[in-house]
Amino acid sequence: MLVQQVVGIFLMCAGTLFVVVAGLGVLRLPDVYMRLHASTKAGTLGVALNTAGLAVLHPALGTFTRAAALVLFLLLTAPIAAHMIGRAAYFARDQMGVTIWEGTIVDRMLDHRGGTLFASRPGEDGSSSSGAVS
Fold first, then answer.
1. pTM higher than 0.85
2. DSSP secondary structure string, the chain?
3. Cα separations (Å) of 1 from 52, 56, 82, 90, 92?
4. 66: pLDDT confidence band, cut at 50, 70 and 90?
5. N or C: which end of the chain has fewer CB within 10 A?
């Protein structure tokens, strides 16, 4: 029983650490896209580890089933939700006041927008009107 408690507590402490790191990432990272990355990746892993620790500490079939369903639900929905929030922030960033970190180098969505992100006039950054670098 002692090994089971040690493993369960270790999993829950590791999960709590990941959730705290996700929260710090949301507070400290410079733009929406990096914050989404921190909250989605570290938050999902943290909740999964906490749930696994709970399943180890309370080894009933109902607890394990609920824990597995919760982790599966998070793994299926968190990336899709983050992707949709990121797309909405990208395409409506002028209306929403979303700014991109000035250290961002590559914008892979240029073809969809039909223009350049950082140039004030077309072609100023060495790209053609289609967004391809010549």
1. no
2. -HHHHHHHHHHHHHHHHHHHHHHHHHHHSSSHHHHHHIIIIIHHHHHHHHHHHHHHHS--HHHHHHHHHHHHHHHHHHHHHHHHHHHHHHHTHHHHT----TT----TTHHHHTS-SS-SSTTTTSB-TTS-B-
3. 16, 11, 39, 51, 54
4. very high
5. N
